[in-house]
Automatic annotation (TrEMBL):
PROSITE patterns assigned: HTH_ARAC_FAMILY_1, HTH_ARAC_FAMILY_2
Keywords: DNA-binding, Transcription, Transcription regulation
Entry keyword annotation includes Nucleotidyltransferase: no
MF GO annotations: DNA-binding transcription factor activity; sequence-specific DNA binding
Organism: Herbaspirillum robiniae
Protein name, as recorded: AraC family transcriptional regulator
InterPro entries xref list: Class_I_gatase-like (IPR029062), DJ-1/PfpI (IPR002818), Homeodomain-like_sf (IPR009057), HTH_AraC (IPR018060), HTH_AraC-typ_CS (IPR018062), INH-QAR (IPR052158)
Pfam families tied to this protein: DJ-1_PfpI (PF01965), HTH_18 (PF12833)
Domain HTH araC/xylS-type, chain residue ranges per copy: 232-330
Keyword Transcription regulation applies: yes
CDD domains: GATase1_AraC_1
């Protein structure tokens, strides 16, 4: 007699709570919600998904579309004996230029998060986790346009505006808008395995499943925006000459400054060191070459200023968590 087939998921149900508040970005909520719901269709026992707001009822998103929610009290009443929140997700979005948290949601997160297996934020949802005291001392991310405000408001955080998402133990933070889908796919992969996550991505017609370390935006464009005035010409020259000597001394000479004066002025103007800008631009050039050409890795390493192929491999592993070959396999159009 054949043994009974085991369920793909045995144990307490995974209660997934997506918090909602007025003014939130619609896609910050519905992107992860759709990804998790698609995973549930493939495995009905995988998740129990709840969209929860402080008072319940209709919550109006920043796009003007109301979303039906259950209240915190209604959700609490649904939990059975011994059940707890598996994953708590705080979506972001704001209708003003200054992010303001809902005190009731902050208090609830502060109380419930310690018992949750995972706590996540999408976009400015990081402000909720920070206000609840969950992010102190951690490296976190948010939408690039809000990173500076988040860092100023919570100086104990290490805010990195570059990655799509960051995992620090059981705390996950992600960039904004579509990055919430990348975060949700990573959660599905952790829970249900790589093949299930890929199947969900296909159902969502997501061309690729991006690694969390991939940058939110183009490094050259970001640098040009950050130093649009004083160092704009320097940034354009760097992008066109990645194989040249790009040490601080060389760059300082191009703008007729001493290395010390240049380094201080550059950080004050752009918020990052010259070396970091060069690193990001070289990585961006290598990524684009892998995505858009069939050039050999040795040629890409030379053109991007890495010199040797092994240097290119080391940078990709450190920055993106994948090898150049793996990156090309995921992202190349060729």
């Amino acid at each position: 007699m054949n043994p009974p087939r085991s369920s793909p998921f045995a144990g307490p149900p995974r209660h997934i709570v997506l918090l909602a508040n007025d003014g939130m970005n619609l896609l910050d909520l519905c992107g992860p919600l759709q990804a998790l719901s698609t995973a549930r269709r493939q495995d009905p026992e995988a998740y129990r998904i709840h969209v929860v707001s402080a008072a319940g009822g209709a919550v109006v998103t920043g796009a003007g579309l109301p979303v039906a929610t259950e209240s915190l009290a209604q959700f609490e009443a649904k939990l059975g004996d011994g059940e707890r929140i598996h994953t708590l997700v705080a979506p972001g979005g704001s209708t003003s230029e200054r992010f303001v948290t809902n005190p009731a949601l902050v208090d609830w997160i502060r109380e419930r998060a310690p018992q949750a297996q995972r706590v996540c934020s999408v976009c400015t949802g990081a402000f909720y986790l920070a206000e609840a005291g969950l992010l102190d001392g951690l490296r976190v991310t948010t939408h690039w346009a809000w990173a500076e405000q988040l860092q100023r408001a919570y100086p104990a955080l290490q805010v990195d505006p570059d990655p799509i998402f960051i995992r620090q133990g059981r705390i996950w933070t992600s960039a904004g808008v579509t990055a919430g889908i990348d975060l949700a796919l990573a959660l599905v992969e952790q829970d249900l395995g790589h093949q299930k996550a890929i199947a969900v991505a296909r159902q969502l017609v997501v061309f690729v499943k991006r690694p969390g370390g991939q940058s939110q935006f183009s490094a050259p464009l970001a640098s040009q925006a950050a130093g649009a005035g004083r160092f704009a010409e320097l940034h354009a020259w760097i992008a066109a000459n990645l194989g040249e000597d790009l040490r601080v001394e060389s760059l300082a000479g191009r703008v007729n400054m001493s290395p010390r004066t240049f380094a201080r002025a550059y950080v004050a103007e752009t918020g990052r060191t010259p070396a970091r800008t060069v690193e990001l631009m070289r990585l961006e050039a290598a990524r684009r070459a892998l995505e858009e050409t069939s050039l050999p890795l040795k040629r890409i390493a030379t053109d991007a200023g890495y010199g040797e192929e092994q240097n290119l491999r080391r940078v990709f592993q450190r920055q993106l968590g994948v090898s150049p070959a793996q990156y090309r396999e995921r992202f190349s159009a060729h």
